[in-house]
Amino acid sequence: EHPPQPLPLHSLGGLQQMHDRVAREYQERVGQDAEAVDLDSPIPAPPYRGTKHIQALTDPKAILEEGALMDHCVLSYLPAVRAGDSALYKVEFQGERCTLELAGGRLGWTLGQLRGRANARVTPETRTEVERWFATARNASARPTSWMPQLAHEDESEAYQPDELQGVFPL
To answer: Per-residue confidence of the chain (171 residues) as pLDDT tens digits?
Structure first.
């Protein structure tokens, strides 16, 4: 059996076709040999909580299923997800289905790719919804939630709670 001949790359369309073919072949190979990508090992928790419309892909099998359903190469991001450099979410908004990548870096998390089936562009409404969610999630995580450790007392019911200091330290 001869390996497939590469497509001529005379245009962006040719490059897109080659990418799509490679992504499909990768999905098929992983489907035949799931041990090749270790679908049973856990991945880091996503940086932000999802919503009704935006849900984190929390394990390798979910990422594999996302790539197969959406016909794109999201599974190839698994090493970056394992390293904590990417986080992946599925988005379902106003009848549109797409996949979101958050990219981690020195400055924190940023919006990465947002693509529909076969890497199609998403509608402006979906992009706006994702940007709104991301801004809210990022701002919420920037606020310290437990900025002061609880002080232990003999009677645990008397432990100091941060709410008791409301107004003492501005947040």
So the answer is: 666 665 566 676 665 666 566 656 665 665 544 456 678 889 999 999 999 999 999 999 999 999 989 988 888 899 999 999 999 999 999 999 999 999 997 889 999 999 999 999 999 999 999 999 999 999 988 655 444 343 343 444 444 344 443 443 343
| Sign of the torsion angle spanned by Cα atoms 148, 166, 107, 140 | positive
Nearest to 71 by CA among 4, 32, 25: 25
Three-class SS state of 146 = coil
3-class DSSP state of 56: strand
Local structure of residue 40 (DSSP, 8 states) = T
